[in-house]
Design goal:
617 residues; 31% helix; TIM Barrel; alpha/beta; Rossmann fold; 21 helices; globular; 2 domains; binds alpha-D-glucopyranose
Length: 617
């Protein structure tokens, strides 16, 4: 006997992919309980994404903190983890899939074998013939390649681009200088095409501020961060206080967000920093009146890591003031909280606050509408799982060659000693950063703060030099060349590669900007008897003493080039010219800092825009 198809078997509108997004949002929202809505507003860390959290309580999003990764960090481990989480989420009462977010900030840098591109500060150096005529095409291509590698691991969302206009990158004591493109707002604005690469280019008639994604298979949701003024804190203190007028905040730090919002950026991350003493995470004026009102942003705002915890010190006697942090942040306009470990406490506190009338239901509905809108647009309802056909894209040759191009174009050189000869008898390569993939990638690579060593496949600078010289050339390598080697080696020239250890965020705040590991001494010893090229691998300008500068024959700022060292060799040996010019001031002494282009006493070692070519006299 045929079973009557009950009315209840009809597909609910929110599960109908052909229905308009806003109709799907309204239908699903109407079906949700307060507790289910509250759960959608939480982002938890992958290590606590349990069956209870995802299937029973319905957490809306999961992330991996910097360095947190499954198994051997291979693409297959990532897809296995995330597909498993989606299966749990889809088994919840309403079957709302999670959005998984990760910091793919210079390629898919958490994944072993992924292509790791130069960090943003290196990408900000490239411009066409004349200063200021930026060509952001390269950034868009890097965004596209990153999106493909992120999708290949089953992830729909990256916390990039960082569009901090680093006012303090002219004050390189800030540990996040390398995450921004430049101190010049116009340059940063022109490079927000990385968001277009990640999400795709919206059509001309796309509604302003509405989230956009061109392709579920090949694009990922972007996240413009950290809103707003993170790069302008006093004395370069990470998560510090940006003291400036609203006009300066809007004209300098907010400018890149206008472009990202116009390009349909799906999410914005609030900054840990303060504006004139008010924490961004509870600043209603900037999060709601400006970002959502004046700028018309219709995606959702996510907090930074434990960002609301900083809104109040824990009250020792009564435990924490977490309920107060939640109330202040959501009433200011936050939509999702990057918790990451306090999910059930968060859930209880939020439900209590709404039932007590401390947070209006309209605010909860606005936040959940925004989150659901982005989820429907991301395609995660129709395509919650990874696509195995994409796995081979991770670290593919095409992306490596793109990274070569980016590395080539990210370097600046001081004077014409280059190109290096390839047909000489013997050369010396030395320095801590000559043969270390981890050091040349910098922070946010495999580990949160990065790490030295062969942390992921790639080509070190030494390996690239060996591949580039002629067969008759002997390459002698010593991490720290000895006096004996220097004196007796009879080298045609030496390449000394020095720089910083990797770091991220506050860990990178420094007041001493000397070259670590006595790099200056090594340079002086080598250059005193051998024609010497120095390559500096760093996320900011470092101290280069005058006497060092006078003894060497050429200087290249390689910034943090990533896995593809061949891109450096391409320029060193003349296969491609240097086209990079400094995106930031290179200070003469830390005593000068902060040192900004336009200052009355502007006397840097190298000014913004400095850079020489080999073949163009
Ligand atoms: C960090 C960073 C932010 C990152 C987030 C998640 O604290 O400030 O840039 O996206 O946490 O890792």
């Amino acid at each position: 006997m045929a079973t009557a198809v009950a009315q209840g078997d009809a597909l609910p509108p929110y599960k109908d992919a052909s229905a308009p997004v806003e109709a799907r949002v309204r239908d699903l929202l109407a079906r949700m309980t307060l507790r289910e809505k509250a759960a959608q507003m939480a982002q938890i860390e992958r290590t606590v994404a349990s069956a209870r959290a995802l299937a029973e309580l319905g957490a809306g999003s999961v992330l991996n903190g910097g360095g947190s990764a499954p198994g051997d960090r291979s693409p297959a481990c990532w897809t296995g983890m995330i597909d498993g989480m989606q299966r749990l989420a889809l088994s919840s009462r309403l079957g709302v899939p999670i959005l998984y977010g990760t910091d793919a900030v210079h390629g898919h840098n958490n994944v072993y074998g992924a292509t790791v591109f130069p960090h943003n500060v290196g990408l900000g150096t490239w411009r066409r013939r004349s200063i200021g005529s930026m060509d952001p095409e390269l950034l868009r291509k890097i965004g596209e390649a990153t999106a493909l590698e992120v999708r290949a691991t089953g992830i729909h969302w990256t916390f990039a681009p960082c569009v901090a206009v680093t006012e303090v990158c002219r004050d390189p004591r800030w540990g996040r200088c390398y995450e921004s493109y430049s101190e010049d707002p116009e340059m940063v604005r022109s490079l927000t095409t990385s968001a277009t690469g990640l999400q795709g280019q919206p059509p001309a008639d796309h509604p302003h501020g509405y989230p956009f994604l061109a392709s579920v298979r090949e694009k990922v949701l972007a996240c413009a961060k950290h809103f707003v003024g993170d790069g302008g804190t006093d004395s370069g203190i990470n998560e510090g206080n940006t003291i400036c007028s609203y006009n300066d905040l809007e004209n300098i730090h907010m400018a890149p967000y206008l472009d990202c919002i116009a390009q349909g950026v799906a999410t914005v991350m609030a900054s840990h920093s303060q504006w004139n003493g008010e924490r961004l995470h509870s600043c209603r004026y900037l999060l709601t009146d400006v970002l959502k009102g004046k700028l018309g942003f219709k995606g959702f705002v996510i907090s930074d890591w434990e960002g609301i915890d900083k809104l109040c010190a824990p009250r020792v006697a009564q435990g924490s003031d977490y309920w107060y942090c939640i109330k202040q942040s959501f009433n200011a306009g936050m939509d999702m909280i990057m918790i990451p470990y306090r999910f059930e406490e968060f859930l209880e506190d939020l439900v209590f606050l709404v039932e007590a009338g401390e947070i209006p239901m309209s605010r909860i509905d606005d936040a959940v509408e925004r989150i659901l809108r982005v989820k429907f647009i991301s395609g995660v309802f129709e395509h919650p799982f990874s696509d195995p056909s994409l796995l081979d894209i991770v670290g593919c040759k095409e992306h490596q060659l793109l990274a070569h191009e980016a590395v080539r174009k990210s370097m600046n050189q001081k004077e014409p000693f280059l190109p290096l000869a390839t047909n000489v008898k013997r050369i010396l390569v030395t320095g801590t950063h000559a043969d270390d993939i981890g050091l040349q990638c910098g922070g946010w690579t495999i580990g949160w703060n990065g790490e030295s060593g062969k942390i992921t496949p790639g080509t070190s600078i030494l390996e690239a030099i060996k591949e580039s010289v002629g067969v008759q050339t002997e390459v002698v390598y010593e991490a720290c060349a000895t006096e004996a080697t220097i004196a007796t080696g009879q080298f045609s020239y030496a390449v000394v590669v020095v720089g910083e250890v990797p770091y991220a965020e506050t860990v990178g705040d420094r007041t001493d900007l000397s070259i670590p590991f006595n790099g200056s001494d090594l340079i002086t010893h080598v250059a005193s008897t051998i024609p010497t090229l120095v390559i500096v691998v760093s996320g900011r300008s470092l101290d280069i003493e005058t006497q060092v500068l006078e003894t060497i024959d050429a200087l290249v700022a390689a910034w943090l080039p990533g896995t593809e060292g061949m891109g450096i060799a391409d320029c060193l040996f003349g296969h491609h010219d240097f086209v990079g010019t400094l995106p930031v001031t290179w200070h003469r002494s830390v005593d000068q800092l902060p040192l900004n282009a336009g200052d009355a006493n502007y006397d840097p070692l190298f000014p913004v825009g400095y850079g020489l070519k080999m073949f163009e006299k």
